[in-house]
């Protein structure tokens, strides 16, 4: 099982997302189930190599948010048009 480490985002919005991307991180969101959706931030290096595998998109992933493990699947992903960078990922909780 693939494991991704993340942390809760303090600020949301366009300017804070731009600051995240310049510091080699990117914003993401986790939603679904009976739990409120969570805005998170992930380090680029931790996901850039994982997303090359096909099981990243098909299998259940283990997302560790500030020490709490959550089972998720990738719902949608936005990439930079020509750089090998990720702009945003939507994760959906698997119950």
Automatic annotation (TrEMBL):
SUPFAM superfamilies, A to Z: Ribosomal protein L25-like (SSF50715)
Coiled-coil regions listed: none
GO biological process, one term: translation
GO MF entry, a single one: 5S rRNA binding
Domain Large ribosomal subunit protein bL25 L25: 4-91
UniProt KW rRNA-binding keyword: yes
GO cellular component terms attached to this protein's record: cytosolic large ribosomal subunit
Any Pfam family: Ribosomal_L25p
Physiological role: This is one of the proteins that binds to the 5S RNA in the ribosome where it forms part of the central protuberance.
The protein, known as: Large ribosomal subunit protein bL25
Lineage, highest ranks first: Bacteria, Pseudomonadati, Pseudomonadota, Gammaproteobacteria, Enterobacterales
């Amino acid at each position: 099982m693939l494991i991704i480490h993340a942390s809760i985002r303090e600020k949301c919005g366009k300017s804070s997302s731009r600051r995240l991307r310049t510091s080699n991180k990117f914003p993401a969101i986790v939603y679904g189930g009976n739990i409120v959706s969570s805005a998170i931030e992930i380090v680029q290096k931790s996901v850039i190599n994982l997303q090359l595998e096909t099981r990243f998109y098909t299998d259940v992933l283990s997302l560790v948010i500030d020490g709490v493990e959550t089972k998720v699947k990738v719902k949608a992903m936005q990439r930079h048009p020509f750089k090998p960078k990720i702009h945003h990922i939507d994760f959906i909780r698997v119950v």
